[in-house]
Specification:
Layout lengths: L6 H4 L5 H9 L5 H9 L2 H32 L21 H9 L2 H32 L5 H11 L4 H14 L7 H4 L7 H13 L3 H8 L4 H9 L4 H16 L3 H6 L8 H6 L12 H21 L1 H9 L6
Helix pairs in contact: 4-16, 5-16, 6-10, 6-13, 7-10, 13-17
Length: 317
């Protein structure tokens, strides 16, 4: 029998992919059918699997933060409910008012901001000059000094904690902010290493051309090299800010007076002035959300520079 017209397409032999689909007898959308026929599904599977793994990882990472936010809005009677209540009912926004008025958090905020700004300026400025010297200047023992700086990164902080405390006590710096930021004005080894590597990616021909035009070493650094490494400086500034803002161990060791506490110490010594026997978990979580908020905001505002500074490996054309 001769098949004519549109009926001829109905008896066209099926491709291998179509035969598999026909055997399943499950109708698929046209987009999925074309993907199956052309083999594009092989490229979709790794993408979908990667996003699924990242999604599961993100849920595990964000779960503590979501639990902190949820607890900060709970009523005292629901703090220890089982099963846990993720969405507070009722929502107690006044927990934040109680938490921020229980202690002089305004003063602690200013203390922390002062230490953080001084630490960031000192670590970035000193590390920049030291890294420039290691990358661009020639002097006897340069390599030895650089490797010595790297070797200090191998020492745990617990090893130098006691000798450093004895040194600062002999200088009468205990119960002051000086031990928290003065050492950073002598360079931070991790920052020195990273900045030196960035400087090495900039061609030295630019330095030579600038010297021919009459520039000295400081002018070369400020006019030629700094514009090339702005993303790296932004990334290191974010690192320094977060490390200083969240630092707990150093203030715990050197700060004794409660009026000089940083926010990290304030959270550690948090107690409710209303009732000493009342659970303060919800107030502690509310204060923790407020303390973490500045670091989160700064990261999201500067994340473009942070990511660019981490992945940069050369000069843009």
């Amino acid at each position: 029998m001769t098949v004519r017209g549109k009926d001829r397409q109905a008896v066209t032999p099926l491709a291998p992919g179509d035969q598999t689909l026909a055997a399943t007898a499950v109708p698929l959308p046209s987009g999925l059918r074309r993907a199956w026929q052309t083999g594009k599904w092989r490229r979709w599977v790794p993408v979908v699997a990667t996003h699924a793994v990242l999604l599961v990882g993100a849920v595990f990472i964000l779960a503590p933060a979501l639990w902190m936010l949820s607890t900060s809005l709970k009523d005292v009677s629901h703090l220890f409910d089982y099963p846990p209540q993720w969405i507070p009912d009722p929502v107690r926004w006044d927990n934040y008012v109680k938490a921020l008025t229980a202690l002089p958090f305004g003063r602690y905020f200013l203390n922390t901001a002062f230490v953080t700004i001084m630490s960031t300026v000192g670590s970035i400025g000193s590390s920049l000059l030291i890294a420039y010297g290691f990358a661009r200047l020639r002097f006897p023992g340069r390599e030895f000094l650089f490797y010595t700086v790297l070797a200090t990164m191998m020492l745990p902080g617990q090893v130098t904690m006691v000798p450093t405390f004895i040194l600062f006590r002999s200088l009468h710096w205990v119960d002051t902010y000086l031990p928290l930021f003065v050492p950073l004005y002598f360079g931070r080894p991790f920052f020195i290493f990273l900045l030196r590597q960035f400087f090495l990616t900039v061609p030295k021909d630019l330095d030579e051309a600038a010297r021919i035009d009459g520039c000295n070493s400081f002018q070369i650094l400020s006019r030629i090299l700094l514009p090339q490494i702005k993303p790296a400086l932004a990334a290191l500034a974010i690192f320094s800010f977060m490390w200083s803002w969240d630092d707990f161990m150093n203030p715990l060791i050197y700060i004794n007076s409660s009026d000089k506490w940083t926010l990290a110490l304030a959270l550690n010594g948090f107690q409710s002035p209303l009732d000493p026997g009342m659970p303060v978990l919800h107030l502690v979580m509310a204060a923790s959300v407020v303390v973490a908020l500045p670091a989160i905001i700064i990261f999201f505002l500067a994340q473009r520079f942070f990511i660019e500074g981490v992945v940069i490996s050369g000069i843009k054309g």
